[in-house]
Amino acid sequence: MIGELTNHLWQSTIFAMVAGLLTLAFRKNRAQVRYWLWLSASLKLLIPFSLLISLGNFLRDALAPGRMTAEIAPPAVSRTILQITQPFPDTLMYIPSAPHTTSWILVAILGVWAYGFAAIVLIRLRAWLRLRAAVRASTPIDLPTTVATRSSAGLLEPGIVGFLRPTLILPEGILKTLTPSQLEAVLAHELSHARRRDNLTAMIHMIVEAVFWFYPLVWWIGARLVEERERACDESVLILGSEPREYADAILNVCKHYVKSPLVCVSGIIGSDLKRRVVYIMARHIGQGLTPGRKMLLCGAAAVAITIPLALGIILPVRAQSTQTTAPLPSFEVATVKPNRSGDGGVSVGCLPAGSLQQAQLQNSSLHMRIMLKTFRLQEDQTGSTPSDTTLTRRIRTRSTKD
Question: What gap in Å lies between CA 389 and CA 372, rounded to an integer?
Fold first, then answer.
């Protein structure tokens, strides 16, 4: 299990690095493009490559069972690819001399993870319950918006609440705090969040953060998502024709009179680096649209991310996803049967050391005879009785000579 998790995190890290390089390549384009690149890095943590590899195994067996692997990839190539894609063995935590130690280590790791997971879930659940209480206590107001709008008592910033049926929550008194042009810019910002379904995608990443709370990269990706989504909404407001100064003043007034939403999945107007946002707004910085060449680059990157693990599943042989953590069973190349002339009528089973080899000894047991019958693929007598030692020895020698 530890090896599988380590391989998954390593693969997700490589995927996030590639996504980061693509955001640099698209730094002059719209923020929405970079947002979806970072979101794909977040979704990768929920979709292991092993699932796509397994799908490739299934497709290979369905299309050409038993032939394609040997024709496409020799064993040496298959082993090399496996070492590159999954460098950490599944037996990373296996300690043969102390089997009980391994189990306690795993229990301790799972306990720490469960504690962190539960803490994050409880903190966010508490904040969500407070927001739900504020929504229930709010009153509807009539504003020219495409979503339901309600006024709530308190100092919470304007924001979109809900995933499937978003609702715009405005604090009481905001109509007096902002000028009409500033209010229009704020409404345009929030409606942009609603159109983009930012609450839903933020909730998905919140799940990723709760599951992989121990991984710093997850929190760094979350910060990038908030930054790019706010910039995307800022660009949308400027494209609609709002004056940069009026829009910047609206954001600053909201920051001056109201507090930020406690949850990322409640999209507000206060977020990310405000100073940097105001600089971009005042410069009327709007990213360029995607050219056909850049669209093809994005499509190619997506196709590669999906087809590579599928191709590995088709090329590589099927193997167990986890290696057994128990010690391997001893194997014997030679088995002999000898009459017992010691005069001891008791049944005994034991192993005798023989240098680097292992010898197993069974005496005076019908199980002994049946083991030898199974080992050498012999048949019992017609009467159903087990052959004598002399007969069995003769048959074994005869069968071994034929083999």
Answer: 11
Check residues 195 and 329 and name the one with the higher pLDDT. 195
d(CA 143, CA 25): 41
Distances (CA, A) of 232 to 1, 219, 293: 40, 20, 22
At 337-360, the pLDDT tens digits run 566 666 555 545 455 554 444 455
How many Å apart are CA 263 and CA 335, to the nearest integer?
69
Which residue shows structure tokens 């495409």? Answer: 146
How is the chain split into domains, by residue range? 107-289, 348-402
SS (H, E, C) the chain: CHHHHHHHHHHHHHHHHHHHHHHHHCCCECHHHHHHHHHHHHHHCCCCHHHHHHHHHHHHHHHCCCCHHHHHCCHHHHHHHHHHHCCCCCCCCCCCCCHHHHHHHHHHHHHHHHHHHHHHHHHHHHHHHHHHHHHHCCEECCCCCCCEEEEECCCECCEEECCCCCEEEEECCHHHHCCHHHHHHHHHHHHHHHHHCHHHHHHHHHHHHHHCCCCHHHHHHHHHHHHHHHHHHHHHHHHCCCCHHHHHHHHHHHHHHCECCCCCCCEECCCCCHHHHHHHHHCCCCCECCCHHHHHHHHHHHHHHHHHHHHHHHHCCCCCCCCCCCCCCCCCCCCCCCCCCCCCCCCEEEEEEECCEEEEEEECCHHHHHHHHHHCCCCCCCCCCCCCHHHHHHHHHHHHHHC
List, for residues 378-392, the tens digit of each pLDDT value: 454 444 444 554 444
